[in-house]
Amino acid sequence: MPAPVPHRPARRGTTRRGAAERGTGGRGAGGRGAGRRGRYGPRGWPVAVAALLCTAPMVLSSYLPNAVGNLGSLCQTVLPWSGLGVLLLLCCAAVRRSVLATVAVLVPVLVWTVLFGPALVDKRSGGGDFTVVSHNVNEQNADPGRTARALAASGADVLAVEELASRAQETFRRELAASYPYSQVLGGVGVWSKYPLEEVEPVEIMPWTRALRATVRTPKGPVALYAAHLASVRVHPATGFATARRNEAAARLAEAVRAERLARVVVLGDFNGSVDDSALRGLTGSLRSAQREAGDGFGFTWPAAFPVVRIDQILVSGVTPRAAWTLPATGSDHLPVAASLRL
Question: Of 14, 58, 288, 290, which shows the fewest CB atoms inside 10 Å?
Answer without folding.
Answer: 14
